[in-house]
Design brief:
Layout lengths: L1 E4 L7 E8 L4 E9 L2 H9 L6 H4 L19 E4 L9 H10 L5 E6 L11 H7 L7 E6 L7 H7 L3 E4 L7 H10 L3 E6 L17 E5 L14 H19 L4 E5 L7 H6 L4 E4 L1 H4 L9 H12 L4
Parallel strand pairs: 4-11, 5-6, 6-7, 7-8, 8-9, 9-10, 10-11
Antiparallel strand pairs: 1-2, 2-3
Helix pairs in contact: 4-5
């Protein structure tokens, strides 16, 4: 068990990595209080960190030395469109094909009109992947279930501001449980919720469809919203030196991902566009390589 300072946090709170030897389970866990002397000793024992975990981390100055190989863009296939009868195999195949994150949609049939999966499924797929699990909570209220997903192996947890009575407290709860924290904005949700919590955020996720169902078409106005959030992030980074990831979810396909990236997104959730295009052998290298080939040309 080793620890290092929480990304964006301060004081003596440290992020803990637990590696259950022999089980294949790897997950970020809750921070703990460590005396300075022990913390220094821990740092000397830090093992090699899986590259997929590094792709989870924002480009803070504190982590830049660890994440030099971090790609400019991240692709996060959403298991909402995977074959649930063989979910473990699906997440293994998509990460073997090069997926950076696994996106995990949680719906409660209350905040959104659909019902999906909970912490038990997150815990079940955790042994199958070392890639970060990106949990998107579409539930109300959120605070009760945040610790459950942290214990189940989530690395990133995001929620909608409308689903929390105290946004700052919910963000703090995510970080206190050892995960990266983020806010999610529906297509018509205004951005003023960002005004006083940028220091709490590791990722901002913009919905480019109305949440609840996969397979929807990208809402073009999202491009303007992406530009607005990118401007906010860039101004914040210039002032503080700390970066925040900008993720987009909904209708992302090879024929529009370049335009979405040009508008400022660096992390892309794709569900049916990935899981609906398997290779002949059941893998997903073909579609993920297509996404990366398009992204490689952005800005050139």
């Amino acid at each position: 068990m080793v620890g290092w300072p929480h990304a964006g946090g301060g004081g003596s709170g440290v992020r803990i990595v637990r590696q259950a030897l022999g089980s294949g389970k790897r997950a970020f866990r809750a921070p703990c209080e460590t005396p300075p002397g022990e913390m220094a000793a821990d740092r000397r024992k830090i093992p090699a960190i899986p590259a997929a975990w590094l792709r989870c981390l924002p480009h803070t100055a504190r982590f830049q030395s660890l994440a030099m190989s971090q790609p400019t863009y991240r692709i996060a296939p959403s298991i909402l469109s995977a074959d649930f009868a063989r979910l473990g195999e699906e997440v293994r195949r998509v990460t073997e094909a090069g997926a950076d994150w696994i996106h995990f949609d949680v719906m409660d049939n209350h905040y959104v009109p659909n019902l999906t999966v909970g912490p038990l499924v997150c815990e079940a797929i955790r042994p199958h992947v070392t890639a970060p699990i990106d949990v998107h909570l579409m539930v109300r209220p959120v605070d009760r279930i945040i610790p459950d997903f942290a214990r189940a192996g989530a690395n990133i947890i995001t929620f909608h501001p409308e689903a929390s009575d105290h946004i700052d407290r919910s963000l703090a709860l995510i970080r206190d449980n050892g995960c990266q924290a983020g806010l999610v904005f529906n297509p018509a949700t205004p951005l003023h919720h960002l005004d006083h919590v940028m220091d709490r955020l590791d990722v901002i996720l913009l919905m480019s469809v109305n949440p609840g169902f996969g397979g929807q078409s990208f809402i073009p106005e999202t491009l303007n919203k992406l530009r607005a959030v990118r401007a906010r992030i860039d101004a914040y980074t210039a002032r503080t030196g700390r970066q925040i990831l900008l993720e987009v979810d909904g209708g992302v396909k090879p024929d529009n991902i370049a335009e979405i990236a040009a508008a400022g997104a660096d992390t892309f959730v794709a569900g049916s566009a990935v899981f609906g295009k398997p290779d002949a052998d059941g893998g997903y290298k073909g579609i993920l390589n297509t996404f990366r080939d398009v992204l490689a040309k952005v800005g050139k």
